[in-house]
Amino acid sequence: MAPPPPAGSSALDVLQFLSTALSQRGPYALPYAEETKWLIRQHLVSLIEAFPSLHPQTSSFTHNDGRTVNLLQADGTIPIVFGNVFYNIPLSIWLVERYPLSPPSVFLNPTAQMVVKANHPHVDRSGCVRVPYLQSWVYPSSNLVDLVRSLSQIFSNDPPLFSRQNPIPNPPANPIPSPPPNASRIFSSLSPYASRLQGRPTEDANEVFRRNAINKIIEAVHADIAGLHKAREAEIEGLFATQAELRRREQELACGVREMSEEKEGLEQQLQLVLMNMDLLEEWVRQNEGKWPHEVDVDNVFQPADMFSRQLLECTAADLAVEDTIYSLDKAMQEGSIPSDMYLKNVRALSREQFFHRALETKVRAALVQAQVTSMAARASHYAS
């Protein structure tokens, strides 16, 4: 936790303390919204500049429900004028969690020699202050400087604290120009809070109006900047999402290009293989052209390796021939070239013949597999021996 600046510190020290306190993280973090911290810092700096007797600090605040939180407060005194004499009222201004949307909490800090005036219209026995400015607090027009000025005016008309040694009952509403006998001793024993500041000049009304107008303009500008900041953040988030989608598509396109390049290389290799084989075949044709004394019988170029292969070849050829014949009969039936009774009779006969061909083909395949197994077993036993 950042140490509070000493009383009478410069505005730079106060600003540095507030910046450090509002940027704290972890267990010492202050419970204020991030978008309002700049306004809290500005309000406190303006307050300390207008009332140097107040100084900011952080301390634990206990709510009525028992919750304890670490909050910012402006602690010190505010000036009042009673009986043409200046006095200082000790108090603390607590900035609650929802400040500046919610008004601060103000408490008097009477010393052991002080007593809170009974039945004060704006202060209860516990020292809690309730004035119209707090009850009509409106963000963003309300601020701490105007609050303290309102407190100073109200307490000047009706002081809330008196000395225990010299209590004074209800002072007159309109004090006379010269101070009454006991009024000069209202805070006589309350040093450092009681200090007479006779001759202190009052602030110029035009200067106050100018400063308030400047503060209002600054608050409006900051509100506009905050709105623009949120809009730009939303726009940046949208751009980031678009960028992520573009990167994903870029990866997909790169993967697709890589796969197409690999496929192209494979096709080029196959093309080279085909061209090489074609060159070999063409070379073989050139070398063997004219070497055959008679025309080659294509049907006898390839011969089955054994009896089972020959039977399998004949059965398969017969099966396919019957299949082609049945297909031709179907076309003739659709075109009306043959009557239906002739179609059915021929199809029945062909189907019977095809059945026998396929049955024989199945037996030949089984015998061929058995012969291959026997041959492999014989070779295995030969190698084993």
Automatic annotation (TrEMBL):
Which Gene3D superfamilies does the annotation name?
A: 6.10.140.820, Ubiquitin Conjugating Enzyme (3.10.110.10)
Q: Which biological processes are named by the entry's GO terms?
A: protein transport
Taken from the UniProt entry, a GO cellular component term is: endosome
Which residues belong to any copy of the SB domain?
306-374
Q: Which InterPro entries match?
A: ESCRT-I_UEV_domain (IPR052070), ESCRT_assembly_dom (IPR037202), SB_dom (IPR017916), UBQ-conjugating_enzyme/RWD (IPR016135), UEV_N (IPR008883)
**What residues does the UEV domain cover?**
21-165
Q: Which residues form a coiled coil?
A: none
Q: Where in the cell is it found?
A: Endosome
Q: What is this protein called?
A: Protein ELC-like
Organism for this UniProt entry? Dendrobium thyrsiflorum
